[in-house]
Amino acid sequence: MRAATDQLLLERARRFEKDALAEIFDRYNAGVFRYAMRLLGDTDQARDCMSETFSRFLNALRRGVGPNDYLQAYLYRIAHNWITDYYRSQTLPTLPLGPELRSDPAEDPLQVVADEMELQHVRLALALLTADQRQVITLKYLEEWENVDIARAMNKPVGAVKSLQHRAIEALRRLLR
Amino acid sequence: MTPSEIELDEHLKGLLDRLRTVSPLGQQAVAEDRANFLAQGEIFRAAVSQQARHRHIGWINILVSAFQRKERIPMLNTFMAIVITMTLLFGGAGAAVYAAQGSLPDQTLYLVKTWSEDVRLLLEGSSQGQLDLTLEFTDRRVAEISRLRAMDKPVPERVATRLQEELDATLQIAAGMDDPQLMQALAQIRQKAEVQSQTMKALIGEGSGQKDPELVRIQERLQEQVWLAASGESDPQGFRLQVRERLRDRQNMPSKTPDPTQPGSVTQTSTITPGPTGNGYGPGTGDQSPGTPDHYGPGGPHPSQTPMPNGGSYGLGPGGGQLSATPGGYGPGSNPSQTPQSDGPGSGPQNPSVTPQQSGPGSRTGQSTDTPQPGGNPGGDQSTQSPGQGSGQP
User: Fold this and answer.
1) Stretch among A19-33, A141-155, B297-311 having the lowest mean pLDDT
2) Which residues, other chains included, contact A29 with Cβ-Cβ below 8 Å and sequence gap of 6+?
3) CA-to-CA distance for B152 and B140, rounded, in angstroms?
4) Could you tell me if the ipTM is greater than 0.85?
5) Which residues neighbour B62 within 8 Å (Cβ) at sequence distance 6 or greater?
6) Which of A107, A144, B45, B309 is spaced 20 to 30 Å from B68 by Cα?
7) Do B358 and B224 meet the contact criterion of CB atoms below 8 Å apart?
8) In this predicted model, what pLDDT tens digit does every residue of B188-206 receive, in sequence order?
9) Quick check: B44 and A169 CB within 8 A?
10) Neighbours of A17 (CB within 10 A)
11) Distance from CA of B61 to the nearest CA of A (A)
């Protein structure tokens, strides 16, 4: 059903109809940002990732390529590639300051910092995974996608996705031990 | 719960759950990004629409743009200029060379013809190929001479010279071959020279009255070629030595050191007044300044003529003193109307209008012990003293 909807939407998007493009953005921008934010932990970086993802999507349509269906999987694949490139260009994920720290006066500042460091530790562990392992963990356990959708987004068979999940969990467990 | 989720232990699950909580992007930021996205889409939409209007006549636009929009193929003009230039250059040169192949020595394109022959010879790698080409060129020269004679035109000296050079070249090419190849090449050379000699003989016979001295000289050279090839077939090693000697003689000819002791040697610049009887130039007195050894005796050799290795001295130089023969000398013509084979030193009627011809192969006249007769006419041109002519009083 989603694929059929995506097809109709993409057909209009190929003609760069404003309504279609607006609908696509409204439907997927939050998810792409969330996906990027979970992996990057930085609002500005996540926003850049989101903007670049939609820009690349438009350029793909202009070149006559791009998805014919399953638009969400396509957009997440672009975002994943952007994040992978970002990880490659950075030695270690940066630790954001300010806005990401919770500032509730009721909370213990020490606990807030400890929680944030633990989050960064998890992100660092994800960053140390391979790109495919990181993507499958994110889509499966953070975005809660079905294996079929993950397989579609990763251009892999479902069986390959399952074995990739297994190896990714083992690797992540070793890193977080 | 899927098997994958079972593998995810509580600790790990709890850690990942921490990442689930993400603060959404601010509304303003989302609005900005949305506006940017839609603006980019609008730009692309405009471009696509413009193209769509012309899509059905796109093939016409391509044709029109090839002539109107220079920036579409910026190197087109340069490329076309190069193509046209190359076409004119090589196409024109090729046409000129092709047109020159039928030219005669008195025509402008003859230079192109000889040049193209030189190039062809230069590009030919094998000895046999060079021989075949050179023989073909000798045929051309003979044909050119025949055509000139048919038109009652004189044979230019350069044609005769070129033919002789080509004949020499065939011998040199053959001398560089192995024995089996040499035999075949000599037979080829001999047969070709025989035919050409017959042609030349016929041309000489056609003329009424005086024979063309150039033709006579060429005919003699062809006879010499026949004789050399035949001797080479019987004695290949001797032939090689002979050719080598001819080559050396020819190379040394212009640079020979004058021998002042040679009799009758004169300087080329000596100015001699013809005798009152108009009978030419007699033997020299022997006290002249040294001359080049090639120019002994009246009737200097033709500059391009190579003396025969056996008996290369034809006659004596005029002048007294020791009358030892010098290779490369040419005897005075005893009878200018005849071929130099019968030349005798210092003898013969006086006919200054005829230049003595070089002795042909095997001519044995002008023995070194002969004494030139006073008053003998060497047959030289009276008005211009030929190098090597004796300066004695008639």
Assistant:
1) B297-311
2) A50, A54, B25, B30, B33, B34
3) 18
4) no
5) none
6) B45
7) no
8) 999 999 999 988 888 887 7
9) no
10) 15
11) 21
